[in-house]
Amino acid sequence: MRAAIHEMRNHLCVAMAGVEAFLDGKHEPNDARLRAIFAALSSLNLLIDDLPRDRAVRFAVNAVPIDVCRLVGLHVAAMDGLAARRGVRLHVDGCTEAHSRGRPFLGDPVRIAQIVTNVLMNAIRHTPPHSDVRITYRRWGTNLRFAVSDEGPGVDRSERVRIFEDGYRGRSVSLPPGSGIGLAIVKQFVEHHGGTIGVSNGPLRGATFTIDLPGTPPTKIPSGTIEPSVVAARATVPSVGRRATIPASGDNCVKSTIAR
């Protein structure tokens, strides 16, 4: 249940931060930003379908053909307000039109959205104000590579495996509070898509998380749990995609998310 609450709070936080950026005059409420906020709220509504009647929660993975470049771009755009609230600049280098016309990509739009949102929220949390987060995503063949580089404290070499463990938080005293769930969720869903995730440090500072998804998931995709759980029914996944991740209002929007 803890993991499910974490994911729903993330979505809510993205939407609230986006609206707050409009109210504070940091962003104009254009069509693209309004659609991104609507997508976050729609994802929150659909994530309720993941909650079983029992207290435990199970995250299923259902692969369908998707426009993965459009999906990633939509959820990257949804982070714009949260980044502005923190004083962090996002630099996006996404798929070109040629990349988008690649071979069909099979994946779960909900889980891929969770991957994107969790990694980005992690980067924003660890990046000081007036600094940059760089996002790149590209397709080749059936594959997708998604990478996020921040300007935070980086990840100690001794912790580059443990940061993907459920509940683990980095030892840096400068880290903001967090639950230690987000990166465990990311790793689980990446692996369930037959993909890989890795982390490295920049030459001066910051960390880069790189995710490779093959677009051809294993024939039998396992259902995962962050906590022990019973099997729960899940609603049909729409082809456009649903999405996941967010904290409550105020500073908790960032403070209660991912940790490394």
Write out key terms for the chains shown.
alpha+beta; 260 residues; five-stranded mixed beta sheet; disordered C terminus; two-stranded antiparallel sheet; globular; Heat Shock Protein 90
Layout of secondary structure:
Elements (H helix, E strand, L loop, with lengths): L1 H22 L7 H17 L16 E3 L1 H10 L2 H7 L2 E5 L3 H4 L4 E3 L1 H18 L5 E9 L2 E7 L32 H11 L3 E6 L5 E7 L38 H4 L5
Parallel strand pairs: 2-4
Antiparallel strand pairs: 1-3, 4-5, 5-7, 6-7
Give a description of the structure:
The strands form two sheets. Strands 2-4-5-7-6 form a five-stranded mixed β-sheet. It has a two-stranded antiparallel sheet with strand order 1-3. The model is unreliable at 225-251 and 254-260 (pLDDT under 50). It has one domain (2-255): 2-Layer Sandwich (Heat Shock Protein 90), CATH 3.30.565.10. The protein is an alpha+beta fold. Strand 6 and strand 7 (207-213) form a beta hairpin. It has eight helices and seven strands, in the order ααβααβαβαββαββα.
Structure summarized in a few sentences:
The protein is 36% helix and 15% strand.
